[in-house]
Amino acid sequence: MLSGILNSYFVKTHRLEISITIIAIVLFLIYFFGATHVFTRFPIYRAFMQSMPFFGIIAISATFVVTLGEIDLSFPSIVGITSLTFGMLLTSTDGNFFISFALATALGMFAGLVNGLLVTKIGIPSIVATIGTLFFWRGLVNVISQGSGIAIVDEADGTWHHTIFVDKLFDTIPAQFIWFVILTGLMQWVYRYHKFGNHIHFVGDNKASAQMMGIDVDRVKIIAFVQLGFFSALAGIFTMYEMLYFWPTQGSGLMLTTLAAVFVGGTSVFGGKGTVYGTFIGVLIIGSLESGIVALGLSGFYVQFINGLMITIAVTIYALIQKRKN
Amino acid sequence: MSEQLLKLENIYKNFGNVKVLKDVNITINKGEVVALIGDNGAGKSTLIKVITGVHRPNSGKIFFKESEVEIKSVSQSRKMGIEAVYQERALCDQQELYRNIFAGREITNSLGFLNIKQQRKEAEKILRNYIGFTSKAITVDSQVMGLSGGEKQGVAFGRSLYFNSDLIVLDEPTMGLSIQETEKVLNFVKGLKNENKSAIFIDHNIIHVYGAADRFIILDRGEVVGEFLKNEISREELVKKMIQLHESGKIKVEA
User: Fold this and answer.
1) Is B152 exposed, middle or buried (0-12, 13-18, 19+ CB in 10 A)?
2) Residue B180 class from Cβ within 10 Å (0-12 exposed, 13-18 middle, 19+ buried)?
3) B4-89+167-248 classified as CATH 3.40.50.300
């Protein structure tokens, strides 16, 4: 019976997804039995649902870039520059949501386009190109903001746009989490069942073959960077609505948690294989570690240590699965 | 005389100062398998890359089905009916077979979402009808990784037949294959003629070339230096010509 299940078609083709799900379940069981008083009550889950989407949205989108065999390190600064733009526009237009949203996300896509062009047309490896743009956009934030923040309380608090971005549905579920789940579903669909997602897989698998099959490799890469720019801007806007404030370092803490969620989720750094669902579970794991560890009664000093342990265990399992396959 | 499919006229191609193709003129007729032979660096790969749209020539004209064409990209050459089958680059290893067959030519709805069901169904037909895969181990959902070199090329052949290509370009299709696998690939090539398809065939092994091709074009240092119909020349003579060319370093082969 057990071996029957283990050899079934579904299990064979979804080893990664199953492994990550088991890791997440075990982790949450540890939380549950180790800190029963916290995890039998709702507030901890609400806190998770409130904070995870900010980096989760970017992690889902970054899964496309990683599947290409590329990397983008600049998104924390894209979050910064687009949030600044959004805050400045919202305050200067007296709360005009449409103009602020359109221009901030357009700037995010432009920043993605710059990354895409540097990688494809100039030929700079993405890790190098995006280190450059990481500093560039953050530097621009510092120059423009002169180190001070922007409050958007007057323009945003209590508005309809604030409601649809971050209000609590039925006074319990944060709207950003609902958006995050919807986006995950949509992006998973695009990833597996849209031409674009299909091309992402082929380019990441083998660039030369993909080109021989008539896929426009450069175009696919550029679009991938552009959509990551868009979703970085979107994540920044979500954060702005939650905090009602822009601060010049906004976004800079996102880099490692976001990329960790993608890799823990099982997307291969070599490209060609990945899963949006895995990234979603990766977000649940990485996003719950800090509060989970503290709730378990361990001191905050353990957070990084256990974070490191989780990432190492997860990627080791994937490497072993891959090895067995070959 | 049979109908002309592809004609190259005075093709030149430089990479920087290096003249890789010099005044190349060739024709390929319908239903004909033409072998391109020559040493490494003779320009064979560049020539087929010009035909498949990977490279664009510096000068010269290309005629396909009697009208002049400019081949700007791989997807354009594919649309015209020219399809390349590269051993190493035919398929993507980690993707499923049915996705490989339709990569770059997906069956989608108007929003660009894939019709997976249709693709799998068609892929199944291709495996059965064109390639003759009956083994249960290989299905349309198999990852390409598990296929042998010959099987991979079989899939690429099946794909080109399914999409009704008129000209199939084969770059070293038998390199590194076992004898049995080579036999399969050569059979695919011979099978093309029954479908009235044409092929350009590059291979280092003159024995394979001789068995499969109708005509031989010898390239040397970017120039066409000899051209023979199969019934004009025996296998031994062809080998002798190649050795002559190699030893003398002469540009022209005496016909």
Assistant:
1) buried
2) exposed
3) yes
CA atoms of B52 and B48, how far apart (whole Å): 6
Q: What is the pLDDT of residue A214?
A: 83
List the single best residue of B45, B49, B110, B113 to mutate versus A (max A Cβ within 10 A): B113
Q: Do B94 and A273 touch (CB under 8 A)?
A: yes
Full residue range of the structural domain in which residue A136 is found: 52-252
What pLDDT was estimated at residue A6? 66
Overall number of domains in chain A:
1
Using CA atoms, how far residue B189 sits from A167, A225, B38, B161, B168, in Å, is: 65, 42, 20, 11, 9
| Chain A contact set for B88 (CB, 8 A) | 208
Task: Give domain status of residue A267, yes or no.
Answer: no
Low-confidence ranges of chain A (pLDDT < 50): none
Task: Over range B202-228, report the average pLDDT.
Answer: 84
B31-88 pLDDT tens trace: 899 998 887 778 888 888 899 888 889 998 999 988 888 888 888 888 888 988 876 6
CB contacts under 8 A, B 48-67 vs A, are 52, 54
Q: A212, A217, A273, A275: best mutation site toward chain B, by most B Cβ within 10 Å? A: A212
Full-model pTM: 0.86
Nearest residue, CB atoms, B112 vs list A194, A208, A214: A194
Which of A297-306, B93-102, B145-154 shows the lowest mean pLDDT across its residues? B145-154
State which residue of chain A sits closest to B156, comparing Cα positions. Answer: A213
Under the banding of pLDDT at 50, 70 and 90, the label for residue B255 is very low
> Where would I find the H helices in chain A?
2-6, 9-13, 15-34, 36-39, 43-67, 75-92, 97-117, 126-145, 153-156, 160-166, 175-193, 195-205, 207-212, 217-243, 254-264, 276-295, 302-325
ipTM surpasses 0.85: no
